[in-house]
Amino acid sequence: MTIATPAGMEIRAEIKPGYDQILTPEALALVAKLSREFEPRRQQLLAARAERAQRIDAGERPDFLPSTAHIRAGDWQIAPIPQALECRRVEITGPVERKMVINALNSGADSYMTDFEDSNSPNWDNQITGQINLRDAVRRTISLEQGGKQYKLNDKTATLVVRPRGWHLDEKHVLVDGKRVSGGIFDFALFMYHNAKEQLARGAGPYFYLPKMESHLEARLWNDIFVTTQEELGLPQGTIKATVLIETILAAFEMDEILYELREHSAGLNAGRWDYIFSCIKKFKLDKDFCLADRAKVTMTSPFMRAYALLLLKTCHKRGAPAIGGMSALIPIKSDPVKNETAVAGVRADKARDATDGYDGGWVAHPGLVDVAMEEFRKVLGDKPNQIDKQRPDVQVTPADLLDFRPEKPITEDGLRYNINVGIHYLGAWLAGNGCVPIHNLMEDAATAEISRSQVWQWIRSPKGVLEDGRKVTAEMVRAMIPEELAKVKQVAPDGDNPSYERAAQIFAQMSTSDSFAEFLTLPLYEEI
Ligand SMILES: CC(=O)SCCNC(=O)CCNC(=O)[C@H](O)C(C)(C)COP(=O)(O)OP(=O)(O)OC[C@H]1O[C@@H](n2cnc3c(N)ncnc32)[C@H](O)[C@@H]1OP(=O)(O)O
Ligand SMILES: O=CC(=O)O
Ligand SMILES: [Mg+2]
């Protein structure tokens, strides 16, 4: 099938039946307009990221910005939150797959973040069928028959929030004036064109989660895109609302500024813990003093994570903004009631800590965890939709607190093998089209897998990358473990005979042992799908 594209736009992918209803001339015209207007700024901001990374590699340490001290000191609040976003005690998340979209909307959660990012493998079909699924979900016509079950929406469903791809990702199948468009702009523009008015007519609105930003200037870019899109679609300014994930160490130093940039469009901040840990490893990978312990030992109560979580909460509530907690990677374990109880207790403790600290809600990975999380927030909030009125003047967080990277020990052979195993398993699933996978009874997505592969790279290079039995982690040690872990992965993965796992092992070996550090694992992987 062929479709008409705006002048200067080229689509290098198959247009399957139904795709033409998403890739309409008007929707593509919005993609082209936003690309032409904003792509140069995206490229400048990505270049600025690379320059900053070089300075950090050379020893510079982040601090609160002197140039924006007036914003931090100023007395301002974000615009009022729409009613549909007032109560977000439990937010379920998941990829834009049809069955999961229906299950998540029906899960009993207050809101549902549907994901083109960490939990999605961004192949062409996933991106476009995802848009089809969301169009049908917004209009409540979505249904499915699968495995002898009928899926359709309940009368009451969660509020829909969409996470487009981050600034680093392109949509390689769509070119404007010969250049790839931004994945984030592509996802955002198609969703807005097809759904914003319909959502408003149904009492909600176009709501987004914005991932992986590193500075308030990146938030300003999103804000300017919102303003232009609202003009183009004839929507009142301030209609779009966006929650920013604070999931990079550099953004943690600019939380006030990010809220300020988006103040007419803000729906608060979220503590995206997994990418945050990854970002810390990535930014300080060359620092001889930086070296985190086994992945399992780095938790929300680790000193640097605790400082970040409390600063986020305090900053949001001071500005009248919701503070939303992140996700425990624990998921229900159907095969083992005892282990299941431990996993559920872990989620319960995670939500209890967030609710008690003052968070207004938190994420869950699975419908089976909605009630548990809801109960913990209800215990603290009662019937209140949120606790934005809870101020935390007692919280004082310094740059040194945010950079207090402990624990450093233990680093174990089990922890090293775990990282290699998860890395290969996740990469293999991603190449095969699945961006979120249960591995060793935990939710694994692009953010958790980034921690695994970057720890291996860093342990090889850091003088502190020493196993507790005294052996230094080396490239040779990792290379020897890779085939052993690949064999284990192939045994347990449901599609273990898929050649994508062999390829994943090759990519993992290359990425973890090469001198250069890949900025995101999804960048080289994307060229393979
Ligand atoms: C770092 C971050 O960015 S966190 C945000 C990104 N991560 C996520 O969103 C996690 C999303 N979660 C998931 O993808 C899944 O829960 C997994 C992969 C972790 C586990 O999946 P599975 O092992 O297949 O779960 P399980 O078999 O228990 O599923 C049971 C049912 O729940 C459904 N389900 C599970 N998770 C979800 C979800 N997040 N949303 C909607 N439905 C879900 C399944 O589709 C299945 O439905 P069915 O009974 O109708 O067939
Ligand atoms: O996107 C969430 C995260 O933890 O990363
Ligand atoms: Mg993330």
Could you characterize what this model shows?
InterPro entries: Malate_synth_C_sf, Malate_synth_sf, Malate_synthA, Malate_synthase_CS, Malate_synthase_TIM, MS_C, MS_N, MS_N_TIM-barrel_dom. It is an enzyme of class 2 (transferase). It catalyses: glyoxylate + acetyl-CoA + H2O = (S)-malate + CoA + H(+). The protein is of the alpha/beta class and 529 residues long. It has 2 domains: 389 residues, Malate synthase, domain 3 (TIM Barrel, Alpha-Beta Barrel), CATH 3.20.20; 114 residues, Up-down Bundle (Malate Synthase G, Chain: A, Domain 4), CATH 1.20.1220. 47% of the residues lie in helices and 13% in strands. The protein is built from 19 helices and 15 strands. The strands form 4 sheets. It has an 8-stranded parallel sheet. Strand 14 and strand 15 form a beta hairpin. Helix 2 runs antiparallel to helix 7. The longest helix has 33 residues. The chain is globular, with a radius of gyration of 22 Å. The chain starts with 8 loop residues before the first strand and ends with a helix. The site of the ligand O=CC(=O)O has 10 residues, from helix 10 and strand 12.
Which CATH architecture of the largest domain would you pick?
A: Alpha-Beta Barrel
| Number of distinct beta strands | 15
Write the CATH homologous superfamily of the largest domain.
Malate synthase, domain 3
CATH topology of the largest domain: TIM Barrel
Topology:
Blueprint: E1 9-11, H1 19-22, H2 25-57, H3 69-73, E2 90-95, H4 98-105, E3 111-115, H5 124-138, E4 143-146, E5 149-152, E6 159-163, E7 170-176, E8 179-182, H6 183-201, E9 207-210, H7 216-233, E10 241-246, H8 249-252, H9 255-261, E11 266-271, H10 273-283, H11 303-318, E12 323-327, H12 337-357, E13 361-364, H13 370-381, H14 399-402, H15 413-431, E14 437-439, E15 442-444, H16 446-461, H17 475-492, H18 500-513, H19 522-526
Parallel strand pairs: 2-3, 2-13, 3-6, 9-10, 10-11, 11-12, 12-13
Antiparallel strand pairs: 1-7, 4-5, 7-8, 14-15
Bound molecules: acetyl coenzyme *A, the ligand O=CC(=O)O and magnesium ion.
Domain Malate synthase N-terminal: 8-70
Enzyme class: transferase
EC number: 2.3.3.9
